[in-house]
Amino acid sequence: MTPVLLRPDLAAVAAAVPEGARVLDIGCGDGQLLAWLRDTKGVVGRGIELDASDVAAAVGRGLAVVQGDADTDLADYPDAAFDVVILSNTLQAMQRPADVLAQLVRIGRSAIVSFPNFGHWRVRLGLALSGRMPVTRSLPVSWHETPNIHFCTIADFEALVVEMGLTVERRAGLHSGRQVAAWPNLLADTGVFVLRR
Amino acid sequence: MDERFGLDRRVTLPGDFPLAGGGVLPELTIAYETYGKLNANRTNAILVCHALTGDQYLASAHPVTGKAGWWTRLVGPGKPVDPEHWFVICANVLGGCMGSTGPSSIDPRSGQPFAMNFPVITIADMVEAQARLLDHLGVGTLAAVIGGSMGGMQALTWAVNHPARVKKVVAIATAARHSAQNIAFHEVGRQAIMADPIWAGGAYVADKPPAAGLAVARMAAHITYLSEEGLTEKFGRRLQDRDAVSFGFDADFQVESYLRHQGLSFVERFDANSYLYITRAMDYFDLAQPHDGNLARAFAGVQSLFCLVSFTSDWLYPTAESRRIVRALNAAGAPVSFVELESPFGHDAFLLDAPEMNRVINGFLTA
């Protein structure tokens, strides 16, 4: 079976997952990333997803996915149950992002977190020039309809990680899926961090 | 043609059948149906477990009511459990009244019906009876065991008591234990039966059953299978064949007429003593009980993949009960999928048209 091409931000996350790891993907959607990891990296994967039809689609791919809410359900998982816990493009939709981060590094030996960078120059420029909340390619929904309630910049995230005493194993700023060479908080549309306790 | 396979089969397996509660049955008869063909490697067997008042007529016409099988929306040509592909088994539970050994069976030792001399049985006993049937059919390992409601309890028990014999478990609209509310509703039903003088301590004759008591039991139970939203939508306060209330105690309201009909038609096909014994088995069900209430420990040795489904308006076995099972399976490291589906139809939703449920089950079985 030929694995499908991953969304660029997922590809960056997938690259950080070791072969054969036990992986929990939180907010796994229809299971695209988990299925890819299973088929190409021999990963043993589990997923959590809020949307019932996404869960149905993921189960249809043969994945073990539980309908649930990362804000409330992560406490149910035992310590170090997974090698890697993934939270891709979901942190900004959490009620309590810091609590969720703490759960990630508890449940997983390492955690891969990706999020849209609100410090990207387009966002800064958009807000500065139009005075309106930015609606961009990666954040296409208006402020009153978006499920994203806790935006941050890469610099904000770095500060939180330091405050929580977490170790950053790797970090990358991506623009259109490609790593930016410098000034990630200005030039990257997405931040990807590998964290551990 | 192997006589063991097909519609309307019945087998008596000689020898003692010991029960979890300490009793022993001198022999075990199981009435069952099979659909499709067991493949050469014997890897395509699916056991479907029925609910409290269900039976083995899973996908063929019921001999008493003439109605189509009770789960033809899931089992049949073009459905997720297609006999073209799967070898499907469905057996009347131990304690039932459609041919398997139950309180209305003749006790070979006395020549009389067991009636209330029938030993109290458990969900685990039902599963052991099914295991004996599988031995008889030459089925070692099940590709899947599927059940809703009490059928789901059996499916979970299969995974716990026979971990090596079950590859996949589909447990729908079910729980790992009976709640106080579940027990309370069952007790109302049992007391309705026992309050009927015709019940006579269970010693009624077959053609003169405690119909009034059993009908009331069914009426009360039937309410728990629906939802307030569903009842309101279906009946509201609409009147039955009249323009105004009668200021009497006729079935003025459509919902009354409907419940009375449910009660009366149930009596035609179900035995009152079976109702007592099977509801009791459900009340005693608590998978965590042998493990000091720790459900995760009950699942410690499971080897199956699990798929759980609940429905938003099911207040009999609500989503919280499914989530409790999911949590415990996660804690035990077992691979589990779970989805809560939108439905206004209450507990009965799993027997009605549920395309999303079919999609999930189909994906889970074929993956």
How would you describe what is shown here?
- The complex is a heterodimer of chains A (197) and B (367).
- With 197 residues, chain A is α/β, with parallel strands linked by helices.
- Chain A has a single domain (8-196), classed as Vaccinia Virus protein VP39 (Rossmann fold, 3-Layer(aba) Sandwich).
- Chain A has helices at residues 8-15, 32-41, 52-60, 70-73, 97-107, 121-130, 154-163, 184-187; strands spanning 22-26, 44-49, 64-67, 82-88, 108-116, 167-175, 178-179, 190-196.
- Chain A has an eight-stranded mixed sheet, sandwiched between helices.
- In chain A, strand 6 (167-175) and strand 7 form a beta hairpin.
- Chain B starts with 8 loop residues before the first strand and ends with a helix.
- The model of chain B has no long low-confidence stretch (mean pLDDT 96).
- With 367 residues, chain B is of the alpha/beta class.
- In chain B, helix 3 runs antiparallel to helix 4 (211-225).
- An eight-stranded mixed sheet of chain B has the order 1-2-4-3-5-6-7-8, sandwiched between helices.
- Chain B has helices spanning 123-137, 150-161, 180-195, 211-225, 228-234, 254-269, 272-284, 295-298, 319-331, 355-366; strands at 9-18, 24-35, 45-49, 87-91, 144-148, 168-172, 305-311, 336-341.
- Chain B has two domains: 9-181 and 286-366, Rossmann fold (3-Layer(aba) Sandwich); 184-280, Rna Polymerase Sigma Factor, Chain: A (Orthogonal Bundle), CATH 1.10.1740.110.
Helix content of chain B: 25-40%
Cα(first) to Cα(last) distance of chain A is: 37 Å
Number of helix segments of chain B?
10
Strand order of the largest sheet of chain A: 3-2-1-4-5-8-6-7
Key structural traits:
heterodimer, A: alpha/beta, Rossmann fold, globular, B: 367 residues, alpha/beta, Rna Polymerase Sigma Factor, Chain: A, 8-stranded mixed beta sheet, 10 helices, 8 strands, 15% strand
Give the arrangement of secondary structure elements.
The complex is a heterodimer of chains A (197) and B (367).
Chain A: H1 8-15, E1 22-26, H2 32-41, E2 44-49, H3 52-60, E3 64-67, H4 70-73, E4 82-88, H5 97-107, E5 108-116, H6 121-130, H7 154-163, E6 167-175, E7 178-179, H8 184-187, E8 190-196
Parallel strand pairs in A: 1-2, 1-4, 2-3, 4-5
Antiparallel strand pairs in A: 5-8, 6-7, 6-8
Chain B: E1 9-18, E2 24-35, E3 45-49, E4 87-91, H1 123-137, E5 144-148, H2 150-161, E6 168-172, H3 180-195, H4 211-225, H5 228-234, H6 254-269, H7 272-284, H8 295-298, E7 305-311, H9 319-331, E8 336-341, H10 355-366
Parallel strand pairs in B: 3-4, 3-5, 5-6, 6-7, 7-8
Antiparallel strand pairs in B: 1-2, 2-4
